[in-house]
Write a structure and sequence with these properties.
Blueprint (H helix, E strand, L loop, with lengths): L2 H22 L2 H5 L11 E6 L25 E6 L6 H15 L3 E6 L8 H12 L3 E4 L3 H9 L2 E5 L5 H7 L3 H4 L3 E5 L9 H4 L7 E4 L2 H15 L6 E5 L4 H7 L2 H15 L6 E6 L8 H17 L7 E8 L5 H13 L6 E5 L5 H6 L2 E4 L10 H8 L4 E4 L4 H4 L6 E4 L6 H13 L1 H18 L2 H23 L2
Parallel strand pairs: 2-3, 2-5, 3-4, 5-6, 6-7, 7-8, 9-10, 9-12, 10-11, 12-13, 13-14
Antiparallel strand pairs: 1-8
Helix pairs in contact: 1-11, 12-13, 12-17, 15-18
Bound molecules: 2-acetamido-2-deoxy-beta-D-glucopyranose (3 copies).
The site of one 2-acetamido-2-deoxy-beta-D-glucopyranose has 3 residues, from helix 9.
Length: 469
């Protein structure tokens, strides 16, 4: 897949929404919509060790005072790549949080394509404007910064490759001030080549408890290494996303616009799965469940609004075979007029404004965190999710949504849950409200910032005591 073209499509798409939004509100509000990530985990509260979860009780506000101790600290952020995917965008958010409290922030990207890339260019530009220094990953400046820094954040398991390649004999000197932020959970990331230094860093930060446990198991059993002090840190929604989610006028305009473009009427009920299209994200099983729910409704002669499904995240350049399978399925079942496909986009807010229910159908071990889940909840949407991974830490079964098993055995339970929400409007709306309350309580940017600040404090403390040894 050419990232290049994704970037351009994204920009074109964004412009269209921007125009619509400009009519109703200011540019600053409109910039909002851009953010959101597909995969990857989130941060929201921190847990130390295994249990000892730190509850979130702080009042909602714009202040990020909890990070004040980072003022004038030198922080090096090492990103394994720079693109519009979850991992790098999260690290950028951290960069901006740190800048906002006056930290000195240096960014390096370990893997860059040799040809110029529009997306990289615009992201680096965005960082420079906000006072983040960008250095080449293999430059002497990068090495010097690593040696001088108060803190180094390595982002993703794969970023571990940077350590030996660039620091060489200085690696051991630097490890005690490294915080390793991990967002992956697929088997191929458990490679010695990536993670051999993991036991010796000051700390690791992982987006959910489930994924943290998985990393502890896998590193011990497969690699025979021990994780350092590891913190589970849930992600939070940005202020920008919350602004749209809480603006009823903007939401109505976006809702009408998206529905019209899909051919869905206001009174119809719209289910969406918003994830890059791939087998791991379970679009195939969702469509089977959707079809099954239509059959159930027909068989039981239930009175429900006309039901539609939209699959946001289509990419015919990348997943052609799988996508053809999806498209063949809907033709075979004659539900083409009920199922819609939308190209992959980072601009998820318009879709969240337009739909009635979010489906989170990630398979296997599920999502590491699944940021779209908290974004949907911010829009007061109930979530039908697989009982796997981070989803189980976000969705409260029966309260903010309903969980079904991953795999083929989840198809019928999901179909029944779809029927439940289609037939019980009141229940659907209540679940949406509960989800919103849960987000306000624990999945906001300031919650994430607070939890991260606890981790950074400990890591700095450790690095300092190490220096004094
Ligand atoms: C980790 O291993 C323990 C036992 O060794 C097991 O009970 C637990 O379910 C495993 N956790 C994960 C996430 O695989
Ligand atoms: C969606 O992507 C396909 C192929 O990647 C492209 O041909 C099509 O024009 C895109 N549709 C929109 C509305 O951008
Ligand atoms: C979710 O709750 C329903 C009942 O409300 C229950 O039947 C189902 O087993 C629960 N699923 C999980 C994964 O806890």
């Amino acid at each position: 897949m050419a990232k290049h073209s994704v970037g351009w499509r994204w920009i074109a798409f964004h412009k269209r929404w921007l125009l619509i939004l400009l009519v109703i509100f200011s540019i600053s509000t409109a910039i909002i919509i851009i953010r959101a990530a597909f995969d990857s985990c989130d941060r929201h509260y921190v847990e130390e060790g295994n249990n000892n979860r730190v509850p979130i009780s702080s009042p909602i506000g714009n202040n990020l005072q909890s990070l004040d101790f980072m003022k004038s600290k030198l922080v090096l952020l090492v990103s394994h790549e720079l693109s519009l995917s979850g991992g790098p965008l999260l690290l950028m958010e951290l960069a901006f949080l740190l800048r906002s409290v006056g930290a000195q922030v240096v960014w390096v990207t370990n893997q860059k394509p040799t040809e110029t890339d529009e997306v990289i260019y615009s992201l680096e530009h965005k960082m420079l404007i906000r006072g983040v220094q960008v250095h080449s990953a293999k430059s002497q400046e990068a090495v010097d910064t690593a040696l001088k820094a108060d803190l180094i954040v390595l982002n993703t398991a794969v970023a571990g490759k940077w350590l030996d390649a660039v620091l060489k004999e200085d690696v051991t000197q630097v490890l005690p001030k490294v915080l390793w932020w991990i967002h992956e959970m697929r088997g191929h990331y458990f490679k010695m080549e990536y993670v051999k230094h993991l036991p010796f860093v000051a700390g690791a930060m992982i987006d959910s408890h489930t994924t943290t446990e998985y990393w502890k198991n896998r590193t011990r059993e497969r690699l025979g290494i021990k994780m350092p002090q590891t913190y589970a840190v849930h992600l939070g929604n940005s202020k920008e996303l919350m602004e749209v989610a809480e603006d009823s006028v903007a939401k109505r305009v976006l809702r009408e616009h998206v529905r019209e473009s899909l051919g869905v009427r206001n009174e119809d009920i719209l289910f969406a799965i918003i994830n890059s299209v791939s087998r791991g994200k379970g679009q195939d099983l969702f469509l089977r469940a959707f079809y099954e729910s239509l059959e159930l409704i027909k068989d039981q002669k239930l009175q429900v609004p006309l039901m539609h499904a939209v699959v946001v995240g289509s990419d015919m350049n990348a997943q052609t075979k799988f996508e053809m399978e999806l498209r063949n399925f809907i033709v075979e079942k004659k539900i083409q007029d009920r199922v819609h496909f939308v190209n992959k986009t980072l601009t998820v807010a318009p879709y969240l404004a337009a739909i009635d229910v979010l489906i989170q159908n990630s398979q296997g071990r599920g999502e590491c965190f699944g940021r779209i889940t908290i974004e949907a909840m911010a829009f007061q949407l109930p979530v039908l999710g697989t009982a796997a991974g981070g989803t189980t830490e976000i969705v409260v079964n029966g309260s903010t949504g309903l969980l079904h098993p991953a795999g083929k055995e989840g198809v019928t339970p999901l179909a029944k849950n779809i029927v439940k929400l289609a037939t019980h409007v009141e229940r659907r709306l209540t679940m949406g409200k509960k989800g919103y309350e849960r987000v306000k309580e624990r999945f906001m940017e300031q919650h994430m910032a607070e939890r991260i600040s606890l981790v950074l404090k400990e890591v700095l403390q450790k690095a300092k005591s190490h220096r004094h040894l």
